[in-house]
Amino acid sequence: MQQQPSVIATGDFLYFAPAGQAFTVPAAGVVSAAALPGAADTIWTTFGLGTVMKPTTDKYEGKDVVIKQPLPGTGIIIPQQILRPDRGLTMEVTMNEFSRLSVAGFYKSPLIMLTDTAFYPLAGEGSLQGWLKRQQYDNTNGLYKVDNWWVDLNCTKMDVHDDNVVSPTFTFTWLYSGLAGSAI
């Protein structure tokens, strides 16, 4: 692990493994919060989201709850304990690539497979759950962090730029899984 702080110019790549899809590495299974595909499984490239247009930032949201009690003999109420039971992580990213996942997420359709020739807006659950793999590279193309997070994927915007390039924006909400984590 890095001992001294430094400036890192980053490049991010995102991959997604949707819940309910089959995988084969490290062993045959079905994607769920309790089943994470291996790094070499082809599911990651099948449902790749591509490169991130803007660097990603994780946004922590939390709310402190202060438990109080009276100070003996004074009637003054003082904090006894601070709890942080409400917490969450979200990440919003704008992508360079337009994908089947962005169409399904934006139009709230079921997952669109490679063989599908049509999709059905508003026929899905509204968002997609699955494993998000984020690979971050430094300015020398060295891999410095890999995240695997069980998330809720939601495509919130489809911006069209002056050159007619579509850039979808995704919001990922971290959900709990004991398999989630990061490697540095």
Describe this structure in words.
With 184 residues, the protein is mainly beta. The protein has one domain. Helices cover 7% and strands 47% of the residues. The protein has two helices and ten strands, in the order E-E-E-H-E-E-E-H-E-E-E-E. Strands 1, 4, 5, 6, 7, 8, 9 and 10 form an eight-stranded antiparallel β-sheet that branches. A two-stranded antiparallel ribbon has the order 2-3. It is elongated. The mean pLDDT is 85.
Task: Looking at this protein, list some descriptive labels.
single chain, 184 residues, mainly beta, eight-stranded antiparallel sheet, two-stranded antiparallel sheet, 7% helix, 47% strand, elongated
Quick structural summary:
The protein has 184 residues and is mainly beta. The chain contains 2 helices and 10 strands; from the N terminus they run E-E-E-H-E-E-E-H-E-E-E-E. Strands 1, 4, 5, 6, 7, 8, 9 and 10 form an 8-stranded antiparallel sheet that branches. Strands 2-3 form a two-stranded antiparallel sheet.
Note the topology.
Layout: E1 11-18, E2 22-23, E3 29-30, H1 43-46, E4 48-51, E5 58-70, E6 77-94, H2 100-107, E7 128-137, E8 143-160, E9 166-174, E10 181-183
Antiparallel strand pairs: 1-4, 1-7, 2-3, 5-6, 6-9, 7-8, 8-9, 8-10
